[in-house]
């Protein structure tokens, strides 16, 4: 298998990033997709939090993030408000948590460990900055096949227990995330619905 190379995001890949977003999220409300102007803002504000995955120079995955302080007692939030509409202008340089704005793998390159390598890049950054961990809103594409028979909370619990498999949540769990709840009206996707799971990875090396 060809080697996956992780690099810090640069503007030379902006057009490919826009195309990757369209390929990865065809049913997502277009207003949520990361575009060139978002990439430029993310690189300017928090360059070390943005990563790309390449195979032979071809863009096959991306990760974008920012720092926040998180109050888990008030976990309900929207995708757009947490990432300032993609511009991450609400990035807190002293924030204790890394918030995942996006994690994308090209459909033709899935199941090759690309997301795991991007998660590893995030974990390395978290440890270097001594952050508490990672937080994100995780879509659950498999839930649409079960929504008539169970709540999203029940579905997430069954996926967490290994009783069901979800194309997105299962790999996140394998990368150390745990489900800490459900976020209602997180974003808008005509196929997957609007709710997400609140996922958290705690840094085992965090030093208060």
Structure, briefly:
The chain is built from six helices and seven strands; from the N terminus they run βααββαβαβααββ.
The percentage of residues in β strands lies in 15-25%
The largest sheet has its strands arranged as 1-2-3-4-5-7-6
Count of individual beta strands: 7
For the largest beta-sheet, the strand count, sense and barrel status come to:
7 strands, mixed
Query: What is the domain tally?
Result: 1
SS-based class: alpha+beta
| Rg result | 16 Å
CATH topology grouping: Aminopeptidase
Q: What is the second-level CATH architecture?
A: 3-Layer(aba) Sandwich
Broad CATH class: Alpha Beta
Helix-strand topology string: EHHEEHEHEHHEE
Our measurement of the CA-to-CA distance between the termini, rounded to an integer number of angstroms, reads 41 Å
Shape: globular
Mean pLDDT: 94
In DSSP terms (H or I, runs of 4 or more residues), the helix count works out at 6
The CATH superfamily label reads Gcn5-related N-acetyltransferase (GNAT)
Can you give the helix content as a percent range? 25-40%
Low-confidence stretches: none
Can you describe this structure?
- With 208 residues, the protein is an alpha+beta fold.
- The chain has a single domain, classed as Gcn5-related N-acetyltransferase (GNAT) (Aminopeptidase, 3-Layer(aba) Sandwich), CATH 3.40.630.30.
- It has six helices and seven strands; from the N terminus they run βααββαβαβααββ.
- The protein has helices at 14-24, 36-45, 79-82, 114-129, 152-160, 169-174; strands at 5-8, 51-55, 58-68, 97-105, 133-138, 178-183, 196-202.
- The protein has a seven-stranded mixed beta sheet with strand order 1-2-3-4-5-7-6.
- The protein is globular and about 45 Å long.
